[in-house]
Amino acid sequence: MPGEDYRRYFEILELQPDASFSEVRNAYLHLKRLYSTESIVIHPIANEFSEESRQEVLQRIEDAYERLSALFQDNGSAYTGSRGQPLGPEEAGDVHEHVSFSGETLRQIRQGLGIKLHEIAFATKIRLQYLENIESERFGDLPPEVYLRGYIVNYARCLSLDSGRVARDYMKRYRDWKKKS
Amino acid sequence: MARVKKGCEIWAIGGGKGGTGKSFVTGNIGTYLASRGKRVILIDADIGGANLHTILGVSRPRTSLTDFFERKASLADLIVCCDSSNMGLVTGDLHSIDSGNIRYTQKLRLFRQIRTLETDYILIDLGSGSHANTVDAFLLADKMIIVLVPEITAIENMYHFMKNVLFKKLKISLGSRGFKEFLQDTWRNRTTYGIKNIKELIDYLRKHSTEVREVLDRELSGFRIYLIMNQIRHTSEISIGFSVRSVCMKYFGFKTHYVGYIEYEDLVWRCVNEQRPYLQSYPSSRCAKEIGRIAENLVEGRQIKMTYS
Ligand SMILES: Nc1ncnc2c1ncn2[C@@H]1O[C@H](COP(=O)(O)OP(=O)(O)OP(=O)(O)O)[C@@H](O)[C@H]1O
Ligand SMILES: [Mg+2]
Fold this sequence. Notes:
CATH architecture of the largest domain in chain A: Orthogonal Bundle
Number of strands of chain B: 8
Number of helices of chain A: 9
Radius of gyration of chain B: 20 Å
Largest sheet of chain A: none
CATH superfamily of chain B: P-loop containing nucleotide triphosphate hydrolases
CATH class of the largest domain in chain A: Mainly Alpha
Order of helices and strands of chain B: EHEHHEEHEHEHHHHEHEHHH
Helix content of chain B: 40-55%
Structural class of chain B: alpha/beta
Strand order of the largest sheet of chain B: 3-4-2-5-1-6-7-8
Oligomer: heterodimer
Number of domains of chain B: 1
Bound molecules: adenosine-5'-triphosphate, magnesium ion
CATH architecture of chain B: 3-Layer(aba) Sandwich
């Protein structure tokens, strides 16, 4: 059970103290995006809050995430990234510098986050069977290229990944397969 | 689960921009609760814009809140029946009187009578806008509920309403302990004190004395606004509710409970125009399920969790 100190970090990320690491990571990415970009939620009150207070909020979010990441790693329940290493906070922000996104990589990241495939299906409205085919790279059983790209983008967003990069890598693998067959 | 009966609970739905779906949500949450065996009374307090009866498909009743304010009729006598035997409605046809003139004492009388009604839930549709009348009535409820749509203008108006509500809350809390002047002075001279927003105001007030700090901590710890996102057209818009919740906490300094979202559905306005209650016409639609979930969350004081960002 996390002590008093950690409770505060969960609070900063607006989570209950029993949140899983995937919840922590999602909340962190969400808040980081919220306070570092000008969205329709921030815009109407932007003039009431100084740049310093925004930076302060962002800093507290970073700190909380860093401490909680460490907590989850210590407990041995850490999210294991695609390289078999637990992800540090910096890496998790702009994920996976050096990997190419294959179906297997996506599966590992998803499982590492504790997200079920049917949850992705629900969130993206992509058929479960297609998602399974994407992860297993059963390219022959996938929809045409134009649709496939959209699916990959949505799936990647669900995992909070850089969807452009994921789509680029994945579609390259798809085209390589197509050329061969 | 057996519960000790602790009287009825008042939920007020109001604030912000017009047309977000407050009346639709009020009517349908009421219908849902009634369908689950709860006794519900809906009160249409949207002064000058009453239309809850239409959303519920009730033909225009002869009695309304006007009778309460003008003829001093008792509230219980103004309840008309709806389709469900568990649900009653007090309509708010108020264009015959000057709506801005309902005095605070009138409102207190209304809330006193509301509390005596023999029922489980009372849902009050307060209409849009940040008029002092609306803000006061909002604060008198047990649960304060805002319906938001994913649109920058709606978000802007909502912030305005929230700030009004919070400021009024400060005024009531501090005013009753003799700090009314102090609050008004601080606010009037806010630029001198470098106060740019309501959070900084609260921080400044807290530093005044232990007494002020204790009052504020006590009053604000129980202060909570419940948020519903309506007319969602894309799953990405669901997260706006979480963003708003965050801004309320980190920038305004108060708690918000994000209790759920409702999709945009063409059938909704078709039902409204045909004066058919939506939840009764399409009880197994996705919208209906979302409304049910929101009602349950409100009853239990739960909120939804972010599933992905
Ligand atoms: N989820 C929805 N999907 C589609 N249409 C909706 C939805 N919710 C509300 N509407 C439509 O939006 C219109 C406005 O809804 P409603 O009258 O409930 O808003 P309101 O907030 O009560 O407005 P006012 O501030 O004027 O009282 C209605 O005509 C209704 O058909
Ligand atoms: Mg209305």
